[in-house]
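Hi Y.,

Following your request, here is the sequence exactly as I used it, all 170 residues.
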Amino acid sequence: MVIDRDYRYLIANRAYLNFRGVNRDDVIGHCAFDLPTGKEFEMTVRSKLEQCLRGEIVQDEMSYEDRTGGERELSVTYFPIEGSKGVDRVACILQDVTERRTAGRSLRLFRALIDHSNDAVEVVDPETLRFLDVNEKACQDLGYTREELLGFTVLRQIELRGSSFGLAGE
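Below is the corresponding structure, written out as tokens. Let me know if you'd prefer a different format.
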């Protein structure tokens, strides 16, 4: 969307309208204070817009409750747009990052569980037999760092381990 110095919506694309659950006529030409989200605007967005109207690119993150009552996470970037007398508009790019953040938290939890397992965990590419991932227990059991193991194939690791036991060439 694009907002002018009077906080009036000049442009709002279909994605923004769908995101807010409004029609174009409900937004374009209207002041952000006059919309149902006016209180939210005053509390969270106005200071970012004012900073942007001073010529700065501003990045922010915010959480909000969507129309279904669910919590969503947004990444928002405000870009100053210069007119003949300086910055007179702001382009706002909103990106819903809820799924990406949820996936990141799940991945960090999974990584913590695997790393603290009492069992060695080795993830191997079935085609190349390269180690894709290993946990700390696997590193301890095999006697290599994680970086070393990730550079090996399973066969190379067996060759190396076999030679340390005097098995190579037998």
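The chain has two domains: 2-99, 116-164.

Thanks again,
Q.
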